[in-house]
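User: Okay, second chain of the day. Same drill as before: sequence in, structure tokens out.
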Amino acid sequence: MKATIWHNPDCGTSRKTLAILQETPDIDLAVIEYRKQPFTRKKLEQLFADAGLSPRDALRTRGSPAEELGLIEGASAGSILDAMAEHPILVERPFVETDKGVRLCRPQDKVYEVL
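Assistant: Same drill. Structure tokens below.
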């Protein structure tokens, strides 16, 4: 099985999710540190749609510039997506994509839903 994790090594949940993936046998794992290799808007749209989330659902508000950028109240989905593509720290993490689907793995045990 192929799996891709959009990873932030400074995030405990992301590190725990990555550890689960690394310990799972027969996984061809790709690790994307999204702060170094940012999302495209198109990829964000696909991940959110496949995970059944809106951009607002996937917006990281804690420890991000979401409030300063006016994304907390009244921002459109398009505005949030544009801001996420420009500032990847706005995307909640980690996202994991496999052949079985996409999950925002908070808590990390949600990764088992796509393994």
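The two ends are 8 Å apart (CA to CA).

User: Thanks, on to the next one.
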